[in-house]
């Protein structure tokens, strides 16, 4: 049985449509796995009080890429901060650039993925990175100097020394006396209460005793003589 031309043409068209569909599917799958600039992101952060710029690559294909960071000034590159290689992953791989960025500064981040001669990606992350309005560290203001208080004098700071009695000896406490003070020129009484005229008074008393005794003796003698007559 012969196959008609119409049947043959229909079969060819079906095969062509299937091949085209397969090619589109493969192309879509390839584009889905290919590296693109949308898989890169940049951020300005603070780490241990210092500024850093991080770039994260979430390219699931793991295409090696070179990331370059530039500080911008009026739309032009002022300096190149650094350049690092990164190989992305589905969960993301991050590279860090140490940079003491200033508030509201602008940085351009460029990505070159694949072969340098025929790169898959050769573009900047859009838009440019702008740092936060607050710096990582703030300069501490110097507190105003407080007037220093005058140094205490030696008499105020050093307590008066008190006499310490020597062990074994006693220091009698001074007790007030109610006795009147002796007049100037008069001698002090001894502990017995006698004055310095005690000897003179005793001499006079002894003389009087002798005189009195003699008078008694004479009187008795005269009385005896009178009786004898």
Automatic annotation (TrEMBL):
Transmembrane portions of the chain: 200-220
Chain positions covered by the region annotation Disordered: 123-191
Signal sequence residues: 1-34
Transmembrane helix keyword on record: yes
Keyword Oxidoreductase: no
Biased composition regions of type Low complexity, renumbered to the chain: 130-143, 151-183
UniProt protein name: LPXTG cell wall anchor domain-containing protein
């Amino acid at each position: 049985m012969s196959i008609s031309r119409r049947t043959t043409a229909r079969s060819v068209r079906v095969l062509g449509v299937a091949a085209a569909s397969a090619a589109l599917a493969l192309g879509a799958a390839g584009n889905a796995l290919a590296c693109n600039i949308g898989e890169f992101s940049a951020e300005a952060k603070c780490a241990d009080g210092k500024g850093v710029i991080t770039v994260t690559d979430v390219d699931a294909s793991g295409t090696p890429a070179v990331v370059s960071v530039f500080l911008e000034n009026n739309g032009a590159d002022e300096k190149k901060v650094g350049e690092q290689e990164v190989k992305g992953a589905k969960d993301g791989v991050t590279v860090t650039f140490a940079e003491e960025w200033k508030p509201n500064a602008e940085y351009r981040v460029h990505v070159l993925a694949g072969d340098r001669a025929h790169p898959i990606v050769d573009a900047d992350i859009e838009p440019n990175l702008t740092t936060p309005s607050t710096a990582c560290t703030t300069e501490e203001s110097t507190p105003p100097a407080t007037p220093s208080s005058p140094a205490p004098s030696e008499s105020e700071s050093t307590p008066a020394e008190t006499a310490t009695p020597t062990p074994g000896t006693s220091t009698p406490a001074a007790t007030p006396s109610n006795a009147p003070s002796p007049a100037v020129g008069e001698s002090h009484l001894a502990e017995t209460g006698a004055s310095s005229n005690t000897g003179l008074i005793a001499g006079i008393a002894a003389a009087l005793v002798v005189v009195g005794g003699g008078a008694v003796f004479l009187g008795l003698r005269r009385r005896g003589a009178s009786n004898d007559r």
